[in-house]
Amino acid sequence: MHLEMTTACNFRCDFCPLVELQRPASRLEYSLIEQILSECAEHRLTNRVAFHLMGEALLHPQCMDVLRLCRRYRMRTRLVTNGALYRDEKYRELFDLVDTLDISFRTVDDMEVQQVQEKLTFDEYLDRVVAAVDLRAAIVPFRPHSKRPGRIPDVGKHLSLRLF
What is the CATH number of the domain that holds 97? Predict the structure, then answer.
């Protein structure tokens, strides 16, 4: 099941129709998410939940609570983020709660970062993405088929590399 917890996003990517749709920033109430997940678990409708679409799930103030709820219902989780909200402690908890974390890394230089996220430089954004990758490598064992560069010196060369 795909669940968009919030329509809010801190990026304005050219590939995403969020801006064109002109949807107001809003979020699902925790009680509604809880009801949806409870019914899915009770009726065995799904055991997998993906948190993505057009909103940045980590902007939902109860995102971690929702992931804990999924864990309680024994649902496998996948969360897609742009990585700009990286904070060490939040990601430590995130890696503990989510089965698959995808960082949608779509910008390649300062100009493009400034177009989608005015508050970050490309280097700051890249540092956050690399910090998330490094943290994950430090706390979660790699599967044998995983590949990961030590640092991403040339982003263009590594954009298609699946890190996890």
Answer: 3.20.20.70
